[in-house]
Amino acid sequence: MNKKYLELTKLIRSKQNDHEILKCLSNYHENDIADMLTVMTPKERKRIYTLLEPQKIAEIFAYLDEPQIYFSELSVKDAAKVVSLMDSDDAVDVLETLDDKKKYEIVENLDKAAIKDVKMLLSYDDDEIGSCMTTNYICIPKGLSVRQAMSELVRQAGTNDNISTIYVLDESLKFAGAIDLKDLIIARKHDVLDDIIVRSYPSVTDHEKIDDCMEKIMDYSEDSIPVLSQDGHMLGVITSEDIVEIVDNEMGEDYAKLAGLTAEEDLKETTAQSMKKRLPWLIILLFLGMIVSSVVGVFEHVVAVLPIVICFQSLVLDMAGNVGTQSLAVTIRVLMDETLTGKQKLFLLVKEMKIGLLNGGILGIMALALLGIYIHLFKGYTWIGAFGISGCVGISLLVAMVISSLVGTVIPMFFHKIKIDPAVASGPLITTVNDLVAVVTYYGLAFLLLIM
Amino acid sequence: MNKKYLELTKLIRSKQNDHEILKCLSNYHENDIADMLTVMTPKERKRIYTLLEPQKIAEIFAYLDEPQIYFSELSVKDAAKVVSLMDSDDAVDVLETLDDKKKYEIVENLDKAAIKDVKMLLSYDDDEIGSCMTTNYICIPKGLSVRQAMSELVRQAGTNDNISTIYVLDESLKFAGAIDLKDLIIARKHDVLDDIIVRSYPSVTDHEKIDDCMEKIMDYSEDSIPVLSQDGHMLGVITSEDIVEIVDNEMGEDYAKLAGLTAEEDLKETTAQSMKKRLPWLIILLFLGMIVSSVVGVFEHVVAVLPIVICFQSLVLDMAGNVGTQSLAVTIRVLMDETLTGKQKLFLLVKEMKIGLLNGGILGIMALALLGIYIHLFKGYTWIGAFGISGCVGISLLVAMVISSLVGTVIPMFFHKIKIDPAVASGPLITTVNDLVAVVTYYGLAFLLLIM
Predict the structure, then answer these.
(1) Fewer Cβ atoms within 10 Å of its own Cβ: the N or the C terminal residue of chain B?
(2) Cβ contacts of A185 on chain B, cutoff 8 Å
(3) How do strand A138-141 and strand A165-169 relate by DSSP bridges?
(4) Which of residues 385 through 424 in chain B touch A, CB cutoff 8 A?
(5) CB pair distance less than 8 Å for B330 and A265
(6) Which ipTM score applies to this complex?
(7) Is the dihedral of CA B16, B20, B21, B24 positive or negative?
(8) How far apart are CA B336 and CA B416, in angstroms?
(9) Number of residue pairs across A and B with CB atoms under 8 Å?
(10) Phi-psi category of residue B162: left, alpha or beta, with phi > 0 → left and psi -120 to 50 → alpha
(11) Exposed e or buried b for every residue in A196-205, given b needs 16+ CB within 10 A?
(12) In chain B, what are the domains?
């Protein structure tokens, strides 16, 4: 647990003069100061703003979850100064939390350099990798000496803090390779710079979908990855902090979709916002559920003759649903690997069905035995009658689990193939198909074995 | 899509002599070479191993998903040399994939320095942050000049490549602060080093659970975070690549647990391994499902009199289940923030119930209207009889959805409070409670309104 900001808040409130406050703040991390701001009163915050340099405010504000609240406490001029001093991706993140009027005012008042970068980043869609990059990086022309490269680095490091990789551009300003800062530091003055340029350094292009290149970015596990235009010009970099954020967001989305939410939610959202994220899926499910209901209706006469069978409908359906979800979750994660061959997909399908068969067998036998005893003892059926009914449950469990594994694997593969996000579309369809299969198997078997 | 390794494989296979192969390999990233190894024959691979320096092999092997296969193709001596040259956390990751005999043999043959680091890392539990750290970092004593610090950096950079942050230790070797390499590079020779040491730099302690400190590590978004012993000695660092891996793993675990898997799975696991991950949850659910079955049994007489009610049981239960899962997923993510106050938890609970009430109201009314018409037209009931039944469904939906929201929020909070992982324990319990509530409400209402 991180309670440092509470300690800091207490300390700041106890200080009398500006000098003491400043000194105290300098002993804390920007993240702690940002957390402190969230618990202070607007009046206390305004005092803090007047004490700090814009550069420091920019660093602190980059850590805020809801920067719009705090930006509204600054004048447009001051806000623009702070945004200008932020990393371009942080600046864009902040601007996107503001209402359009405020955003426009601030953009108009930005530094010249910042305006260009911010406008470029804003031009990308949210799901394009270009929207996550920062223009804060070091680049040098090809053909420098080690010494020249080093002094170029020192010159640029004043304004750019992502220095661990130095990017090399050729004459036409196209990306030509990267130098690990470590290699530059340990190089001798008279070494040839060309020897330490890594030409196999990975890169992404600006309009690539984040979904599509995330695995690649993670695989190469570099500190930063250059973002190039279609024709190879360098536009920005994805830093390791960006990578962490991207992974967190993407995984969060997969997680949310699996739970039937259209996007990840948090505590700060209004009830209406949360409702909107959940309602679409629920409405779809209601309609699909009605289809299942009409199929169950076909078996009304089975229930009329043998009401005990309804006891175990929820059991069979729930198990089928659970198995389907397990297969779905595994398949979605496996499908993230875009290099998957058809053979591997078939392998996955066969494996899922084998698991369904084996698990279904185990659970089917358990259900057969335990429910048979239960029905005999508590429901007053004969041993044969009891095991007839529990046999239907056991066989239905086995069949439903195999089919659910199949459906839970094939449906996301199908959606993936036709380029629809399988995490969104599969859930409701799988639930419905599984319910139908389970209902038909269970009541069908009961009719055939017990009634006919 | 990343198909570079296929291009490389083709290229290497077309080369005649060692020199050509080496030159060609030098143009590709280690990650691509690692991918290439996975598609080559053992004979081809052995040729590659003999051509490359152990340092290069170590870099390539760090990118392999299943290093054990490739390590078995090296002699113990060579394998030990390669492991010795890896980052300590990568080395430990590799060793943990090997069988105990092979692992022991390699550890015995490691470099002296490597043995110490590897044994320390192996001493941590998998869920402790110490198990993820690397001992590859730069540290300098307090009190150096800028110039001395720079030359110390150059000296250590030869063997340590995480140089973007330089850690400062005091006389008793305790962590005293960190220097951003950028600040050191732009500092003038006669600047005071003390001025650029950040004393508020965040840190974690070695035995902290990864779960507990992940949010903190992400919040501070630094390139690397020092890992300290209880008494403040520096043991290692968590690099940005480690952070990406940690976030990916932790989120993957949450995802898997939500799907009813005990851990994330991938394509390479055997059927038996996957079965083991899924069966426990299924067995628990089977038993909980039996409890629900026995409660449904209480309402057998309702069904015997009015068989049509069974048509909509699956609808009500499915919807309750979905709403419960939505609330569960949101609550688990919110609970990850350890700074949450009781007031905020209550706020979440009230909000979830409001959403349940509103969504339940909308869906309840839809069900009432649509099912009433359906029952009248297709089942031959009078309008009053039809709306009586669909009214039961509508009200049950509303009640079940409110209760499911409540249960889906309270149960994970309860498990969180008593320090049981809510992501694991909540799912089955919530399903069961929701099923019970839905069944009792639905059949209870049907009995009261339609039969009595």
Answers:
(1) C
(2) 153-154, 157, 163
(3) parallel
(4) none
(5) yes
(6) 0.78
(7) negative
(8) 10
(9) 336
(10) beta
(11) bbbebbbbbb
(12) 4-127 (1.25.60.10), 138-240 (3.10.580.10), 271-451 (1.10.357.20)
Tens-digit pLDDT profile for chain A (452 aa)? 467 888 899 888 988 888 899 988 988 999 999 999 988 999 999 999 999 999 999 999 999 988 888 999 999 999 999 999 998 888 998 898 888 888 899 999 999 888 999 999 999 998 899 999 999 899 999 989 999 999 999 999 888 878 889 999 999 989 999 999 999 988 988 888 998 999 989 999 999 988 888 888 888 888 899 999 999 999 999 998 888 888 888 888 888 887 777 777 666 778 888 888 788 888 888 888 888 888 888 888 888 888 888 889 989 998 888 888 888 888 887 887 777 788 888 888 999 899 999 999 999 999 999 999 999 998 888 999 899 999 999 999 999 999 999 999 999 999 888 888 777 777 778 888 888 989 999 999 999 888 87
CA-CA distance, B271 to A414, in Å (whole number)? Answer: 23
Q: Which residue of B has its CA nearest to A27?
A: B200
Alpha-helical regions (H) of B221-341: 240-258, 271-298, 300-305, 313-335
Using a 10 angstrom Cβ sphere, with 0-12 exposed, 13-18 middle and 19 or more buried, the burial of residue B154 is: middle
How far, in Å, CA of A326 to CA of A406, rounded?
11
Closest by CA position to B2, among listed A413, A127, A340: A340
The sign of the CA dihedral B70, B76, B79, B80 is: positive
* DSSP-derived secondary structure letter, A17: S
Q: What are phi and psi of A101, to 5 degrees?
A: -65, -55
Set of chain B residues whose Cβ sits within 8 Å of the Cβ of A199: 27
Closest CA to B203 of B236, B172, B173, B241: B236
On whether any CB of chain A is under 8 Å from the CB of B265, the answer is yes
Please name the residues between 132 and 161 in chain B that touch chain A, using a CB distance below 8 Å. 153-154, 157-158, 161
**H helix runs in B100-239, sequence order:** 100-108, 112-122, 146-157, 181-186, 210-220
CA distance B414 to B332: 11
Residue of chain B whose alpha carbon sits nearest to that of A64: B219
